[in-house]
Amino acid sequence: MAKTILVTGATGRVGRDVVKLLSKKGAVVRAGVRDQAKARPRFDDDIALATFDFENEGSFAGALDGVAKVFLLPPLLPNQVELTNGFVDAAKRAGIRHIVKLSVIGVDDGTKATPIEWHAANEQHIRESGLAFTFLRPNSFMQNFITYFPPRDGTIYLPWGMERRVLSMRAISRRLPQRHSQAMGTKEKLTR
Fold it and tell me: SS3 string of 108-140?
């Protein structure tokens, strides 16, 4: 029987794509959502929903019940470090084997903007937890760029990865080492 993968941040752009891609690959996926009634129309019927909120530790146990792996998309909140680390601790207590965390490029650099420091602190906490982990560190996503800076001539060349490709099943693949991090970014052409 396949082990369940919990995806946090499942109603956002990245999380929703991760849920759909994992499901298409045959994984048993549980989408962590704040409001199941609002979230249900966004997902196919075969996707299980679990009430989950980083700001409500009481929601962790139910969301993690029977889960083997977690795709951890942390909240962008001023208390991200505290909330995410609390969730990692709960995941360890629940017997989670592997956490795949969406982080950011630059966490290893000496000078960091505050949100990058938050991700670095979360990564350190995961390392110290003893859990198997994968840190995905994209530079940015093309979808974010074109939302704010749409192409004028129909073509954009940038050294950024496409989120669906970057966050595909390879992030959860058994072929990856048990403890690693990976900076990502590719030169791709986007054509309308």
Answer: CCCCCCHHHHHHHHHHHHHHHHCCEEEEEEECC
